[in-house]
Amino acid sequence: AHGAAFENVGQWKRPWYFAREGEDMESAVLRECRAARDNVAVMDVSTLGKIEIQGPDALEFINRIYTNAFDTLKIGSCRYGLMCKVDGMVFDDGVVMHLDTDRWLATTTTGGAAAVLDWMEEWLQTEWPDLRVRLTSVTDQWAAIAVVGPRSRNVIHALFPQLASGPDSFPFMTIREAEAGAIPVRLHRITFSGELAYELWTPSWYGLALWEAVMAAGEPLGITPYGTEAMHVLRAEKGYIICGQETDGTVTPQDLGMNWIVSKKKTFVGQRSHKRSDAMRPDRKQLVGLLPIDGTDLLPEGAQLVAEPNGTLPTRMVGHVTSSYRSATLGRTFALAMVQSGRERLGSTIYAPLNGHVIAATVTEPIFYDKDNIRRDS
Questions:
Q1: Domain extents in the chain
Q2: Coil, strand or helix: which one is 54?
Q3: pLDDT tens, 328-358?
Q4: Long-range contacts, 175-179 (Cβ 8 Å, 24+)
Q5: Are 17 and 227 in contact (CB under 8 A)?
Q6: What is the pLDDT of residues 195-241, one digit of tens each?
Q7: Torsion angle of the four alpha carbons 173, 196, 192, 25, in this order, in degrees rounded to the nearest 10
Q8: Element (H, E) at 63
Q9: Could you identify which of 92, 185, 204, 309 might form a hypothetical disulfide with 112, taking C-beta atoms 3.0 to 4.6 angstroms apart as the criterion?
């Protein structure tokens, strides 16, 4: 109905972008990004993995699985969580929700849902059989819709006039329950764009009805559906990682600049491996941003990076591009990359030798937009 082109993501087909008549993919994605940053946009996020974690020892299990602690997370709140394998390398991430006493729900990446559930079950059954915990995949039991942008609260108010949705009454990373007509909805103040945003969850059989209700409520505002490509651009502008894109099984949280999510007060899977000498090397690849000197140059994802543009061949590679996009917000191209000793190179120039030419780029912090989270928390 909206001209969606689809792509395969994990076991799902997801809308990639929504082209209007006469638009190519690039134009459509730029328009979708502008809508999310300046107005209000909507995305189907039902494909995220969803695992219910229940039982008297659910909190203990979660604290062992995730690098960060959840002891202080109150019922009705949620927290971003990161998982590592035993080698200390980033495995997957998502949001952990505290729904009720001894009842939690963890989201995973779309492509990682089955692997995360299998991995959790392996730990529970072979290493921690004494824990009283039950895991249940509920991925296909919930439809989920993200309403994103500075005017997203207007849409929420139109759908749920009885719900106090202001920043103080419904703060970031909290949960509320309400009804849109006869549709039961669980609302989460979560964002993967860096904007004010809400995720609306409903039992899957209400999914289409909720989507239509959101579109109707947002129509007077010019609500815009957006796809996975715009989602990638928005999150990269904010410096949010995607597991499997910024990570490849050889990346630690510290490499990503995510020391803040690694607890020093509890044990967790992979903790000891972070203390290995190899994991603490100062010359490990680290996440940085890249701004091509020519703001129209688009670095290919996967492009290798070198320190000198005209070095003797073969030239030693010092990093690679993980994500690269054109940004409507920045008015130019930008990229994320993993670069050896990247944080020591901030402000320097790095080079991507391509077929027949070289692209020069400035190494920057990996956050390009709203570093103080003013828009996210508004």
A1: 1-263, 281-364
A2: strand
A3: 999 999 999 999 999 999 999 999 999 889 9
A4: 175/76, 175/77, 175/78, 175/97, 175/99, 176/76
A5: yes
A6: 999 999 999 999 999 999 999 999 999 999 999 999 999 999 999 99
A7: 160
A8: helix 58-65
A9: 92
